Amino acid sequence: MQTRITLRRPLLFAALLTALGTGAALAQSTTGGISGQVNDPQGATVVVRGSNGLTREVNVDDKGRYSASQLPLGTYSVTLRRNGADVETRKDVGLRVAASTDVSFGAATANLEGVNVSASRLPDIDVTTVDSRSVITAEQLSRLPLARNADEIARLAPGVVSNSGGYTGPTGASLNSFGGSAASENAYYINGFNVTDPQRGLGGISLPYGAIDQQETYTGGYSAQYGRSDGGVINQVGKRGSNEWHVGGQILWEPAFARAETSNTYYTNGLPSSPVAGELYRPNAQDKSWVTTVSSYIGGPLIKDKLFFFLAGEFERQEGSTHNAVDSTSPDVQYRYNSPRWYSKVDWNITDNNILELTGASNTRKTSGSVYDYDYTNLTRGEQIGSADNIKTGGHVFSGKYTGYITDNLTVSALFGKMKLSQYDQPGAYDPSLTYVDGLINQNPALNDGSPRGNNQNVSTLYNADRSQRTTNTRFDVTYVLGDHTLSAGIDNEVTRAIDQGSQASGDGYYWTYGRADPNTPISTGLGVPATGGIANGQDGYYVVRHVSSSLASVRSSQRAQYIEDKWQVNDRWLLSLGLRNDQFENYNRDGDAYVTQHRPQWAPRLGFSWDVNGDASFKVYGNAGRYYLGLPLNPGLNAAGAALSTSQYFTYSGIDGQGLPTGLTSFSQPVSSNNYYGVLPDPRTVTAKNLKSEYQDEFILGFTKTLGHDWVYGAKLTQRILRSAIDDYCDTDRIIAKAASLGYDVATTNSCYLFNPGRASTFNLIDTSGQLVSVPMTNAEFGFPRLERRYYALESFLEHPFDGRWYGKVDYVFSRSYGDTEGQLRSDVQATAASTSPDWDNSYLMENNNGPTNNDHTHQLKLYGYYQLTPEWLVSANLSFVSGAPKVCLGYYGPNLTDPGKYGGQYHYCDGVAATPGSQGRLPWIRQLDLGTTYRPAFAEGKLSFTASVFNAFNDQRALNRYPYSQTDPGVADPQYGQAVVRQLPRYVRLGVSYDI
Fold it and tell me: Which residues lie below 8 Å from residue 836, measured CB to CB, with a gap of 6+?
């Protein structure tokens, strides 16, 4: 019998895929399951009844096993029925997303109606899963002191740390690094719909905090149903209505008087003419901020047992002032952030076997404010000089999902949805007659009376008011139980668009930046910019640069995948998970022509096992090996595959007018561009290397989880991640032209940059002077590159005390290393945001001395969090973390002679002429964070009224997560900002709240 099933399984997979067609799927779970063992299966069935009105009756097989899968999250009663009569019932069974809750029955000799499965019971270890994830429930969210966004919740999971690049999502939340990966390599979901930013992969929108039922955070080992991430996955499942009405509201306040001052920022190096070490650079201590949040919800039945709704709204307002650097054109900004969020869900039990879910969610952030002059000596505000930009970010998502329980063994589901992310950014008071001027501290003091001179133009860049990002997702999944096998197959189509993206310089299309160099040292040997000493008015090294920029386009991509999976219960103790996923990616330029076409199979096998060692779910050993592909974001369609224009032209000057503009100009360079961005749209056939491979990573996990007595669970896990392939841009086109010439090709021009797989040989398509395509192969040695390397390994251990009615606690410790010559799609040390077109790999000089610990390497991570019910009325909670610092980075001009062979200024891994690998300058300090909370529920209100108080960063540590890495502004000229903290911990603040729930 077993042999026959094994032989037929491939035929069933093939039949399912034939029936489903082709597409792409990433089926994020929004459901849970109930399963268990019945001592005597003769004549037995199990009836599952939910608070949402859903009822399912499933059979018990001849081995005494039963399973009710893909149930909507909620509270259920589970009844053993024998020969049509109810004999035993377990009530208040809560489900966890993507997990199976064990409800087993012993010998049925009496009616035990009313026996409860309570939250205080130590839960059995889930031996039906092979992945690595954490689930935080609404109850835990209400008790723990947490900032109110998805990434903050995910930071409770082991191996997840706040990124060091200061990257934020669509609504301002700080993003995470999972297991050493870049902050753009994660995926975000709401009720199964992908809400990740498609342009750069930087975060996604999240639900109103009080609308979250559960948040699932995957840190590795997920099945073939999941993909498009080689970092982590954050999946939020929203609340839903039931047969009982629930109404409530909450008010939160973060007062300005209870917020500690932010540490000031000072210059660290001196220049002869203006800033010196120790002088004030940015008066952060003058910043003020206060936040008020009001939220409410209502949920219940529209038609009992049939139709339900849940609606939640949240409005957050943050007001305050921020003080920028002394050379900023917006020195003192009084701002207001309005953040309205809402969530709605309708659930229709058409029948017990057919369910329809409709979800709508919105999370936006609107910014406005006024700009004032500022006296940095006396630290006082001056007159209003303008208005801050009017900005709207975030967006809306709408989706519908159908689930059909066709038989006890066959379940199908289909999802369709759309998302729009806005990026509205319009100047509040823009004067097109004024030209933006930067770098005022570097003006020649002999020409400005010793005081930096500028104008009221604080707008350097203009955007299209209608720019946005859009995602459409269609998915279909089938699950079929065949004996010991649970077979799944699915497809998913995802189309993303970046509409009216890009920018252009304000004013007349250009702006000015003042600089000062050593008058006897060339400013850039690579760009052909000489020293100023031989140029009129350049004897003291003063110069000014005119920057011209423009990049406007709409681009799109199509990402598809198919998967098949078999969860094979080999026997009562062994479960095997065997999966295979196939991804296809395609990207299009502004004219709708494909420049990346990856239709060939990209097989991603996923193999996992779970061993129930003792056969009673008290000790699980598990393992997982998998490959994970990541599609190219939309961003390269705007630069490497776009018609980007970005040039710089260098001048000396003999005067400065009343608006801060240079006069008496003498040009000493042509318009030059480090990335060869001269505004020409490349032929789509030439944008990428031939046979470009997607970014993908292999991951290996081995771990165990075990109960310790009746009150504890502990475990450990080993993880290794190896990045096998990445995509980035290569911009040293002179080498490609030289290779073409050696092959006898006459190539007059090339693209600005080419997309390729770093660390391996590549072949490029070029167009010769006759208009024909020619192939130019380049070995890795000809590039001058090392091989691509990013490796991560970790040993994780944990000890957990599940809530027993009195207290809950968990402690995690992770020892890890992330090392190599690439961080991945981003580069945190320089805060580069252009995913998959980072400064790395643009030329060989930038990659020298680049191998070492990556920017997201944190060797030690210790996390402790929990809560204690002191009395029926009082609860206290805490969240403590210790994370060792990232490696320090020092960048400067190339080699001991301080040259610029790669045309990138002071971005080489040399510190004052000495080779400086990442970490060779030491490490940033440990990051310590202690958050405390308390909740009071007075007895007279019967638990409906609660008062909360939380203190975040109780020790007021403000340690640096990232420091300014550039040691030189020009060859031989120390950068006065080198070593400044550019990303640091938020200062201590307090949040007070009151809520009422009916």
Answer: 632, 633, 635, 636, 695, 726, 727, 728, 729, 755, 825
State which H helix or E strand residue 13 sits in: helix 2-20
Report the C-alpha gap between 532 and 667 in whole angstroms: 10
Residue 197's Cβ-count burial label (10 Å; 0-12, 13-18, 19+) is buried
Structure tokens at 846: 């930038």
Do the beta carbons of residue 726 and residue 788 sit within 8 Å?
yes
Q: 6: which residues sit within 8 A by CB, 6+ positions away? A: none
In our burial notation (b when 16+ CB lie closer than 10 A, e otherwise), range 758-774 reads bbbebebbbbeeeeeeb
Instruction: Annotate 417-465 with DSSP letters as a single string.
Output: EEEEEEEEEE-SS--TTS--EE-GGGS-GGGTTTS----S----EE--T
What is the DSSP code string of 383-411?
EEEEE--EEEEEEEEEEEEEEEE-SSSEE
pLDDT above 50 (res 33): yes
Structure tokens at 890: 């020092």
Task: Identify whether the C-beta of residue 745 lies closer than 8 Å to the C-beta of residue 776.
Answer: yes
Which of 84-93, 102-111, 484-493, 683-692 is the least confident region? Answer: 102-111
Q: How far apart are CA 731 and CA 901, in angstroms?
A: 13
Distance of CA 432 to the CA centre of its chain: 36
User: Which residues, other chains included, contact 672 with Cβ-Cβ below 8 Å and sequence gap of 6+?
Assistant: 524, 527, 528, 529, 647, 648, 649, 903
DSSP per-residue codes, 170-210? TTSPBPEEETT--TTS-EEEETTEE-B-TTT---B----GG
Supply the pLDDT for residue 12.
Answer: 32
d(CA 798, CA 205): 30
| Closest to 154 measured CA to CA, from 171, 172, 177 | 177
**Is the pLDDT confidence value at 336 over 90?**
yes
Buried b (16+ CB within 10 A) or exposed e, 715-730: bebebebbbebbbbbb
Question: What stretch of H or E contains 846?
Answer: helix 844-847
C-beta atoms surrounding 487 within 10 Å: 21
Comparing CA positions, the residue from 517, 487, 581 lying closest to residue 26 is 581
Quick check: pTM over 0.85? yes
- Alpha-carbon distance 278 to 273, whole Å? 15
Which structure tokens are listed for 102?
């064990």
Query: Contact 887/923 with Cβ under 8 angstroms?
Result: yes
